[in-house]
Amino acid sequence: MLIIDSKDCENIDKALKKYKKKFERAKTLTQLRERQSFTKPSIKRRAQVLKAVYKQQIASGKIEA
């Protein structure tokens, strides 16, 4: 549960902005999306390897981002 401490004179927009930032940092939404469907560990590892290869190719100059 997220709790936002707001001052009496604080604008509701600022409080809402703080809540959104805190919600984003908690990564609640990403966890929910991950739990909606099961992905095999081998597929997760393959995605990590492909991402690492892509980053290396960008760093070496073979691919322009």
From TrEMBL:
GO terms for biological process: translation. Pfam families: Ribosomal_S21. The keyword Iron-sulfur does not apply. It comes from the Bacteria. InterPro entries: Ribosomal_bS21, Ribosomal_bS21_sf. GO terms for molecular function: structural constituent of ribosome. GO terms for cellular component: ribonucleoprotein complex; ribosome. The keyword Ribosomal protein applies. Keywords: Ribonucleoprotein, Ribosomal protein. HAMAP family: Ribosomal_bS21. NCBIfam families: S21p. Belongs to the bacterial ribosomal protein bS21 family. This is Small ribosomal subunit protein bS21.
